[in-house]
Amino acid sequence: MSRRLVGVAVAGLAVAVAAESATYLPEEPAMAAADASVGLAFVGLGVVAWQRRPASRSGLLMVATGFAWFAGSFAEVALFLHRGPLVHLLLGYPRGRLRSRLERVVVAAAYVDGVIYPLARQDVVTIALAVAVLATVLVGWLHAGGAERRARASALAAASVVALVLGLVAVGRLVRVGTDAAWLWAYQGVLLLVAIGLFADLLWGQWTQAAITGLVVDLGEVEEGGMLRAKLARAVGDPSLEVAYRLLEPDGYVDEAGQPILLPAAGGTRRVTYLQEGGRPIGALIHDAAVLDDPVLVNAVAAAAGVAVANARLQAEVRARVSEVEASRRRIVEAADAERRRLERELREGAERRLDHVSELLADCGPPGADLQRELQGARAALVEFARGVHPRTLAESGLAAALAELSQHSPVPVQLHVSAERLAPALEAAVYFVCSEALANVAKHAKASRVGVRVERGEGLVVVEVRDDGVGGADSAGSGLRGLADRVQALQGRLRIESPPGEGTRLVAEVPLSQPDAMA
């Protein structure tokens, strides 16, 4: 124990002797012993708690309560001075820090009550203070989690007995039941038990160990994204806790969703506790600076979370890489569509225009050029059909509904078409068009169907494409055509489903989100 703390303890003993000599000694030695026991318990046990748990201010508040208790022996106006630090101790336990505006208001009221003697003498005010203290500690306990909630259970028990005795003393005075001496004995006994109980809980309480034990059990089943952060937050009692995972390449940290995250600078209200594996940093906990201030709790949490964070860090890296791959797939699809549009435009403005010019020249040749004219018309039709397969001109100029209507006219199987009139983003319209085009081509080649229905509708955040035929079914979803459709749909964060029981036709459903992420990000 440091010399400073020894000096505080000796000063407490000297003050106790002087205080009791000024009040109860030598006429009432029993009352002097009880009164001194309360003050010395808070001072002495507080000094030890202060030395053993320096990160907590609870020991310091116990010492302050003890000296304030003795102050009442020297001056009647200081008789209730101990109420301020006592309430501060109960509401701030176990770290000695107030966490909410309600707690700060109640503690401030307790200090004011203790300083203003006439106010503290009002029994109604005492009852109100007792109720406020109990209610505030209860609210804090209900909102706490993990180790803090287990610790606050001790403060709740202590606040309950203190509030009960304070309230009974005030009510007893109002209705004139009992004597002041009897109530004083009861109050002294309760305060002595509170000092001993909080000291024992602060030094040997199992709430930290219980929280870590529960955390170890919980982390054994961390499977879903977000669960590790939630379980760590619950264990340490900090809902705002964040988990950051260290990336090797590029250097930096990401969250559980694989998104970059910046660590807060030192000196703020948020603190960073680094996690290591084999001497290498693997992650960090970003938390309220007032939460993980106990070295025992910090080390235990870091050790318990190490393996889980290492595993989750690898998962976060995979998700980050998957996100990059998905963005790359979107870029490839959009680049392919752009190239299709370019080829279609070049065919229309180049080769097709030249064929038109040749046709005009042949028309001037008269009957001898009739056969060549027919061949030229066939070549032009083939070129138009090829251009439509590359990228339909109608899709860009008139929209999806017109392009699908044109596509249906060229289908050898009758098509019943229903398409919403709203225009979509170019990438979405191209995706829907080619899904329908490939599906109709498969129906014509393999389904032996008598009719096919195509429906395109805009739902809640989705565009839904359904192609249904009455053919032989048994479509192979692993085939190159359907596999290519699935790749196109998935590249746009969509989903493709195929139902094709043998003999019952085929139903193809594609769902693509209307809102697309920036593929060039």
Number of helices: 17
Number of strands: 9
Lateral strand order in the biggest sheet:
5-6-7-9-8
User: What is the alpha-carbon Rg in Å?
Assistant: 40 Å
Element order: H for helix, E for strand = HHHHHHHHHHHEEEEHHHHEHEEHEE
Main sheet: strands, sense, barrel: 5 strands, mixed
Uncertain residue segments: 387-391
Oligomer: single chain
- Measure the end-to-end span: 60 Å
Going by helix content, strand content and strand pairing, the class is alpha+beta
As a percent range, the share of helical residues equals 55-70%
What is the overall pLDDT average? 78
The coarse silhouette is: elongated
Assess the beta-strand content as a share of residues: 5-15%
Overview of the structural elements:
- This protein is an alpha+beta fold and about 525 residues long.
- The protein contains 17 helices and 9 strands.
- The strands form 2 sheets. A 5-stranded mixed β-sheet has the order 5-6-7-9-8.
- Strand 8 (about 495-500) and strand 9 form a beta hairpin.
- Helix 2 packs parallel to helix 9, helix 10 (about 205-220) packs parallel to helix 12 (about 295-365) and helix 12 packs antiparallel against helix 13.
- The longest helix is centred in the middle third of the chain and has 69 residues, at about 295-365.
- The protein is elongated and about 135 Å long.
- The two termini are about 60 Å apart.
